[in-house]
Specification:
The complex is a heterodimer of chains A (72) and B (463).
Chain A: H1 10-20, H2 25-43, H3 62-69
Chain B: H1 2-7, H2 10-18, H3 24-42, E1 45-48, H4 50-61, H5 105-112, E2 119-121, E3 133-134, E4 138-139, H6 155-162, E5 168-172, H7 179-185, E6 188-191, E7 212-216, H8 219-229, E8 252-256, H9 266-281, E9 285-289, H10 294-319, H11 326-336, H12 340-363, E10 366-370, H13 379-382, E11 386-389, E12 392-395, H14 396-401, H15 405-410, E13 414-418, E14 429-434, H16 439-452
Parallel strand pairs in B: 8-9, 8-10
Antiparallel strand pairs in B: 1-2, 3-4, 5-7, 6-7, 6-13, 10-14, 11-12, 13-14
Classes of the chains: A mainly alpha (72), B alpha+beta (463).
Chain lengths: 72, 463
């Protein structure tokens, strides 16, 4: 699957059109280029264990991130 | 006299105001006159609030003893901060006519400290980009070279400070937006510890990565601004001012083993190596540190920033796509396609990146990094998808934010300091990172550096 090419990634392209309304082919390509940049880099990393983050605790306060960085 | 007033640093200006060598009205009039003469070409302001500024300055004339540390200083916020009664566009068409009923929290602190808000400064549309070439409010020029970008997204702030159209600015920094323009325009830019300055009343870009930043001509000025605005509660770790012939002898500076300097164009690398030697001459000891992999950090940063931005903009990108610039619309649409699993993986990776930065900051008090691998790019180059850096085709995302995003992902404070390299036609800055809460240490070290390395100013500011 190539995230850059809606021809080989119809699911992404369909979702884009469904979610955001029709876009021209150049506009679609531009968005998919950005997405490819992101996904290629995410794919380079193994997902950390599920304990690596509590999804209920986003980095929404200085205490959260400060405590984390202090090892607490 | 008016010309001298706009040449003052914030420290010099507030001292002159305290001594009553000049009045708030004289200062504001001098700045408004300069904006009127120069900003048509520089494009730093979205809105000039001349009447409001004169009124606020007049009120300060009779309130000398009640006002705060920024008494009478004309300071313009980036146009992402809500300002009561003054339109706040976010650099957009969509909010072009929004007039908030209240001030953002940091604007309120600014006014309470005695600053006079003179206007609102240009930004990349919704702060989502590094060039500040705004399709709705015009492009901001770099005062050092009008054919180059001022950086972004706080490019209006940086150019206005470098050209003395304001003495300082409050800005934002989600992926380097206070440090990138500081590097491009030769001024200082601070991204404080995450959460230090409130983002209340700031148009969000990415709420888990957004920071309020500070920009001023010098590190000394940035420290003055920080002292006036930052709360001094328990999490802030004070730093003693360094002193003596080798004032940084207790400081270890971590140099990333990945050799980021080798990734920079020769002019940037040379300026950074010289700056590092200067820091060593002040007593700092350079040690090697390991940082998390840049590609993984980039994946996490861009997944989070685009997905969160798309969530904020979801209705508008569906209903008003024609009211966005093409570059920002592409980023938002990409963010709408980041899956929940990918977003969560990015947040997981973010935590591993933060842990890596934490480890590095156990081995050194500071981390030394470039801000960007190149000097301010030409306008046409900055608008392209990639550019050659040392012969390697490099995505513009990486050129602008690659070295800055570590501090946003981890939340640690980071300070861009101009190298002040003599004879340079374009400025270069380095950045220092410190442990959470150690913003004061950054500012002390930055000031120690600039005491022995005077800063340059762009030729256009001599107008």
């Amino acid at each position: 699957m190539n995230a850059r090419d809606p021809g080989t990634n119809p699911d992404r392209a369909d979702r884009l059109i469904a979610a955001l309304g029709p876009a021209s082919r150049p506009e679609l390509d531009r968005a998919l280029d950005v997405l490819a940049f992101i996904l290629e880099r995410l794919a380079d990393a193994d997902a950390p264990g599920l304990d690596a983050i509590d999804p209920g605790q986003p980095y929404s306060s200085k205490r959260t991130i400060g405590d984390h960085l202090d090892g607490r | 006299m008016a010309a001298e007033l706009v040449d003052y640093t914030l420290a010099q200006l507030t001292a002159a105001l305290r001594r009553r060598e000049c009045s708030p009205t004289e200062v504001v009039v001098a700045y408004l006159d300069r904006i009127d003469r120069l900003d048509g070409e520089l494009g730093t302001h979205v809105t000039v609030d001349a009447d409001g500024a004169r009124e606020a300055a007049g009120a300060l004339e009779s309130d000398m003893f009640r006002s705060g540390p920024l008494h009478g200083a004309p300071i313009a916020p980036k146009d992402l901060f809500a300002t009561r009664g003054v339109r706040t566009t976010g650099g957009s068409k969509i909010l072009a006519h929004w007039v908030p009923a209240r001030d953002a929290a940091t604007v309120a602190r600014l006014r309470a400290a005695g600053a006079v808000v003179t206007g609102k400064l240009n930004t990349h549309e919704f702060a989502f980009g590094g060039t500040t070439q705004n399709p709705w409010h015009g492009g901001t020029r770099n005062p050092w070279d009008f054919g180059r970008v001022p950086g972004g997204s706080s490019g209006g702030s940086a150019a206005a400070i470098a050209a003395s159209l304001t003495v300082a600015s409050i800005t934002t920094d989600t992926g380097g937006s206070s440090r990138i323009p500081a590097h491009c325009c030769g001024i200082a830019g601070l991204k404080p510890t995450h959460g230090c300055l409130s983002t209340d009343g700031v148009i969000p870009l990415s709420w888990t990565l957004d920071h309020v930043g500070l920009m001023a001509r010098t590190v000394e000025d940035t420290a003055l601004l920080y002292a006036a605005l930052a709360p001094s509660d328990g999490w802030r770790r004070p730093a003693a001012p360094p002193s003596g012939d080798r004032p940084l002898s207790a400081v270890r500076i971590g140099l990333p083993a990945a050799d980021f300097l080798a990734d920079c164009e020769p002019e940037v690398r040379g300026a950074l190596e010289e700056a590092l030697r200067t820091l060593e001459s002040l007593g700092a000891r350079v040690v090697a540190v390991s940082l998390p992999d840049l590609r993984i950090a980039e994946g996490a940063q861009w997944a989070i920033i685009t997905a969160e931005a798309a969530a904020f903009h979801r209705r508008w990108i569906r209903e008003r796509p024609g009211d966005y610039g093409g570059d920002v619309l592409a980023l938002l649409r990409a963010g709408a396609l980041v899956g929940a699993d990918e977003y969560l993986k990015a947040q997981q990776l973010r935590r591993t990146v933060a842990a890596g930065i934490t480890q590095a900051l156990r081995e050194a008090e500071l981390i030394f990094m470039p801000v960007m691998p190149v000097r301010a790019p030409p306008l046409d180059v900055a608008a392209s998808a990639s550019m050659p850096v040392n012969g390697v085709d490099t995505p513009m995302f990486t050129v602008f934010t690659g070295f800055c995003l570590y501090a946003n992902l981890s939340g640690v404070p980071a300070l861009a300091v101009p190298t002040g390299a003599t004879g340079a036609e374009l400025p270069v800055a380095f950045q220092l990172l410190a442990a959470p809460g150690c913003d004061d240490l950054l500012l002390e070290v930055g000031q120690a550096f600039e005491r022995v390395q005077p800063q340059q100013r762009p030729r256009s500011t001599h107008a």
